[in-house]
Amino acid sequence: MNTADDSRAREIARRVLARQAGREPIAEEAGALEREFREGTRRRAIHGAELEEIGEVEYRQVRLEKVILVGLRTGGAAAAERSIEELEALAHTAGSEVLGSFLQTRDKPDPATYLGKGKAKELAEVVREQGADTVIVDGELNPSQRRGLEDAVGVKVVDRTTVILDIFAQHAKSREGKAQVELAQLEYLLPRLRGWGESMSRQAGGRVAAGAGIGSRGPGETKIELDRRRIRIRMARLRRQIAQMAPARHQQRASRRRGNIPSVAIAGYTNAGKSTLMNVLTDGDLLVEDALFATLDPTVRRTTTADGRVYTLTDTVGFVSNLPTELVEAFRSTLEEIAESDVIVHVVDASDPDPVNQVRAVNEVLSGIDGAAQIPTILVLNKVDVADPGTLAAVRVSLPAALEVSARTGAGIEALQEEIAACLPRPQIMVDVMLPFSEGALLSEVHEDGEILEQEWSEDGVRLVARVGEGLAARLGEANIAS
Ligand SMILES: Nc1nc2c(ncn2[C@@H]2O[C@H](COP(=O)(O)OP(=O)(O)OP(=O)(O)O)[C@@H](O)[C@H]2O)c(=O)[nH]1
Ligand SMILES: [Mg+2]
């Protein structure tokens, strides 16, 4: 098992590192790594070929596998059922075939094998009978539980976070999105390598005891050290890249701000219908899919209120219950978009068995974002066309302020547009000016970005009473020909 652990750790590191290596030269660290390679790990250089033969493990491999899901009923039974259903959807999205799922009632996970010993044996039988090649645990496993359960069932064991990371890795499109996902994967990987490393030291100790004469820092341990180091270097590099990419996004956002264009962020649970709603509100054609995490990169579109005020709408990555902390990194650009918006449209899937729980999960993440709590939020119950009437009635009681819409049928969309218009910040400065006819461009800018209260055409020009932002007010002042 320990040789397998060793292989796994190296393989994961190799895979994650190789993914970007093909695209970008890593010249700056190559020299240092090469040196270290030669000093500490000759054996690896000699057996370089063995790296290619290592068994299939981890992230990219979750796809197209036959999986069995397991979970614990620690709190409420219904919650555990729903959570494992969601895990099933996640596994599907990742490309796996789900052969079955089962839940064990326990107060807390077994420290050694997650499931109880007896249940783990049972699981091993099911795995054999059904020909599963992977078990997905609906929770987070620590390294030793994972090892313990793998030993018990004889196939690869992964956890919920691994599946979500895999989906993210498959779906990320932008350079920034990809870098963020990779960073999240490495962040997840690092402490788990340590786990494997510890197990390797035990192994080395065993061999020492058996007279093999290998010190406490055997070659396996050195490899882990090296991998860990390479991962840290890679992570630092990714952080730098992401920091360099961020200014472009900040720039875009800043220029929207300068133009005083209000922004609305569409946030909510994954698969709630955010992209569909965005399409309806902007006549857009964003990817809509009945899959979790279809959207991974925030998209910004301009649109206008019924009275002609321009604003931007941003579609964002969906949230999910028990969002692992590593993933928050991958969500960062989305979280920033939300934190800096003027209005949040929080979309809820009313056809979900427990919409209120979705709202709670999303609010939990939102409450962790600086400033988000102060932003006016419109709660939208979407998919009312297919929502269960009983559920809907219950949700109305808990969330009385929510607007009911269907992005599919268009029901309630007009009311939502009105609500958005009402929540948008209004330009603050009142102006009363007379514009010459030559200032047509300025006039149309006021129409777009300001709010016109009065407009009167005369022989000399156009008299305008309007509320506008600072920049526009100054320019209108300059253009004013009224004495
Ligand atoms: N019946 C019904 N289905 C809807 C409605 N709105 C969206 N859907 C469906 O719900 C699924 C998810 O829609 P998306 O717009 O991709 O959801 P999302 O919130 O952007 O999802 P992610 O980007 O994956 O987080 C799609 O199959 C949509 O067709 C609705 O009002 N009624
Ligand atoms: Mg989407």
TrEMBL record:
It is found in: Cytoplasm. Residues 262-428 form the Hflx-type G domain. One of its GO terms (cellular component) is cytoplasm. GTP binds at residues 268-275, 293-297, 315-318, 382-385, 406-408. Its cofactor is Mg(2+). It comes from the Bacteria. NCBIfam families: GTP_HflX. This is GTPase HflX. It comes from Scrofimicrobium canadense. The lineage of its organism: Bacteria, Bacillati, Actinomycetota, Actinomycetes, Actinomycetales.
